[in-house]
Design brief:
The chain is of the alpha/beta class. It has helices at 14-21, 45-51, 64-74, 87-97, 112-118, 139-148, 170-182, 221-224, 239-248, 256-264, 269-291, 315-321, 347-360; strands at 29-30, 81-84, 102-107, 123-128, 152-158, 186-190, 214-219, 232-235, 296-298, 305-310, 324-325, 327-328, 339-343. The protein has two domains: 14-40 and 269-360, Alpha-Beta Complex (Aspartate Aminotransferase, domain 1); 44-266, Aspartate Aminotransferase, domain 2. Helix 4 (87-97) runs parallel beside helix 5 (112-118).
Length: 366
């Protein structure tokens, strides 16, 4: 059991790096934030611009059209859908909906889970992932840990996990969900990166049953490249969980522009197809290239980022001097300063990343 004070930092702070180097922000190549490099969907620009016409009007606090668009996409009922100002807000609301004293998260994993639990007095336990098996999550072993710690009533998992990039198979998630259903536990499943997986891995939404004690958290931010717009949502079919979450919902949590965007985001069919084409090509190509750098150990990933290990603890600073920003993972429980995370970007940027890593780590830049 570990209980640490919050020391989280996030990727994407290119403004600070540009200031540090005294260069325009456009000259910083950001591999620290896992955002779709295709940028905002161009076929939705007109929709976004038109939404400004209603900027002086409050959005409908029930967000019926937004929820309908999401529900139709996932073939669920409208009242199964909850929306918020980014996935983080919805995640926070699901955590507060369930009164608990103890929770279980992975180590390493996204640091905000611990922060949300800790600030309302919930003690955090960790299920330790291991480098030896590429940080895979073994659900049967986790269930044994839960049996031994009856005080743990919330499990918060990410699939794919950040920063390891590993997914949890649906059959294993079903084992965990069945355990939760029969032992009065709640599973919060963060699928923020599930749309950005090679070969389009299945969401557990497709497996949800009304009796499942599960909240599934999703984000539009990563896939549609809208970190500044903020739109997240949650899906559950459990009537009790819906009532608990309804109490926590903030009024007008989604701004009118994000509301309109969300109503139309799944209509960007060409953009969605191009995104999957990019990922299915560039992700394995970057993995192969990173494997060719003998000074690092890169771990397999199912999504648009890779975790790797280097003996150079100052690698982030050295890469910054070349105007490339990577994510150092020293703030993740279970990792340290020798671990780094890099995002998959376009082909030219990926080549530049590999070339610069080789140069910085003392290899010929070939």
């Amino acid at each position: 059991m570990i209980f640490l004070e919050n020391n989280i930092h996030h990727g994407g702070d290119i403004e600070q790096v540009a200031t540090q180097l005294n260069i325009p922000i456009e000259e910083v190549k950001d591999f620290s934030a896992n955002i779709n490099p295709l940028g905002f969907p161009s076929d939705l620009w007109n929709v976004l611009v038109q939404s400004f016409a209603n900027i002086e009007v409050y959005p409908n606090p029930e967000y019926p059209e937004l929820k309908t668009a999401i529900a139709n996409h996932f073939h669920v009922n409208n009242d199964d859908v909850f929306v918020g100002n980014g996935a983080s807000e919805v995640l926070d609301e699901t955590i507060q909906a369930e009164k608990a004293t103890d929770a279980l998260v992975l180590a390493p994993t996204f640091g905000e889970y611990e922060r949300f639990f800790s600030r309302i007095g919930i003690k955090v336990h960790y299920y330790q992932l291991h480098e030896e098996n590429n940080f895979l999550c073994d659900i049967p072993t986790m269930i044994e840990q839960l049996k031994a710690h009856r005080e743990i009533t919330i499990i918060c998992l990410a699939s794919p996990n950040n920063p390891t990039g590993q997914i949890i198979a649906s059959k294993d998630l079903r084992k965990l969900v069945d355990f939760c259903n029969h032992h009065h536990r709640l599973l919060i499943l963060d699928e923020a990166f599930i749309d950005l997986t090679v070969n389009e891995q299945e969401s557990f939404i497709n497996e949800l049953e009304p009796e499942d004690n599960v909240y599934i958290i999703r984000a539009a931010t990563k896939f549609f490249a809208i970190p500044g717009l903020r739109l997240g949502y949650c899906i559950t079919k459990n009537e009790k969980l819906k009532k608990l979450l309804k109490v926590q919902e903030n009024t007008w949590s989604v701004n009118g522009i994000a509301d309109v965007f969300g109503q139309n985001m799944f209509r960007a069919k060409k953009y969605i197809r191009l995104t999957h084409d990019w990922l299915n090509t560039q992700q394995p190509a970057l993995y192969q290239a990173l494997q060719g750098i003998s000074e690092i150990k890169v771990f397999p990933s199912a999504t648009n980022f890779f975790l790797f290990k280097s003996n150079d603890l100052t690698l982030r600073e050295k890469m910054i001097r070349h105007h490339l920003l990577i994510r150092q993972c020293d703030d993740y429980v279970g990792l340290g300063s020798q671990y780094y995370r890099v995002a998959v970007k376009g082909p030219q940027d990926n080549v530049l990343l590999v070339k610069t890593l080789k140069q910085v780590l003392g290899r010929e830049s070939g």
